[in-house]
Amino acid sequence: MRKLPPAHRLRWMRALPLALPLLSLPLLYAALGAARASTQAPRSPQQEQRQQGRLGSGARGPPPRLAYLISGAGPGDGPRIRRLLRALYHPWNCYLVGVAGEEDRADLEAFVRGEEPLRRYGNVRVAAAGEWGAVTRRGPTELAATLHAAAMLLREFEGWSWFINLSASDYPLMPQDDILHIFSYIPRDLNFIEHTSNIGWKEHQRARPIIVDPALQIPNKTEVMTTKEKRSLPSAFKIFVGSSWVVLSRSFLEFCLLGWDNLPRTLLMYFTNFLSSSESYFHTVICNSNYYQNTTINNDLHFMAWDNPPRTHPVNLTTEYFDAMANSGAPFAHSFRNDDPVLDMIDAKLLGRAPNRFTPGGWCLGSSLGGKDPCNFFGRSFVLRPTEGSAKLEKLLLKLLEPDNFRPKQCK
Fold it and tell me: Distances in Å between the alpha carbon of 292 and those of 277, 282, 289, 347?
């Protein structure tokens, strides 16, 4: 047998710690018993063939594609989204950007046209004025915008496996190569969605009030109105609430948008009169569906910090939280102030990204010597070069798939 030169042996030894532990992910999931065969929805032959292609090839085939929705919360979010796109971009994924302001929209369209990788791969789309309007933060227009975005991603980009929604105040904590590498080893029908049926105070402040969202019919009207009347809780289904940040499978979104079952449409009409419906709609659909309730992982894959006692929204993350974020294993964090110094720390120490540059990955073939951008020269989009930080995401997923965390926390 031909012996490898010392340099090649060293390269293999460095790669082994990244590759070997991942064997535990499919083994652990198989040991838990998916038990989904009896609850799978009927599929067309085309869907069945596509599903077999996804799950049958495992990690040996190309990595899964991620479909991102990046939405702006208000005017002036253009520069924040540009920075987020540079940190988040990977040519294997696809991205839809939604902003309401015309100035921000024009700024982002110019950014997409001006960056060579984005032009070359054509996988970043800025929603036009008629496709993305004013969104009421606590009203159903936010949910409607999310569903519309998912439908656009289904129509315009093929082959993606998971939908991920982010806002301008979110930021990644690891390169996309790390996320794609680890996600290559897990079943592609899993849904990461934090949820609970213990709605507590939200029953009286969100479920019982009857609201009207003026943004449904009046442009630039972004505050909901409540009526004096109250309504009772439904008996035909069980309400679940949770985080508005989700990582949803393509199959589940197709069920919500094109579903053979009337449940998603029935619940959509109900949640038209529900405060902060984006924090409850997907959660209630998935947990009331026999087809998908066993595919949930009760986590939103976001690092957040809360006041004590917790308020309605998490605190803004600063350098004080950097170590906790870096060690959490979460691929994303929420929320950050615009250009907070902790973002520079994340770029330098976690992403390996220089200012005004893309996060480097296996698709970048250039050199960074002399301050050059390694992503000015790019190769195959599906080639990954994960970092040692991917082991933190692997550790998190293994914890979430443990017998004490996985089944007992599904739709409870």
Answer: 20, 11, 6, 36
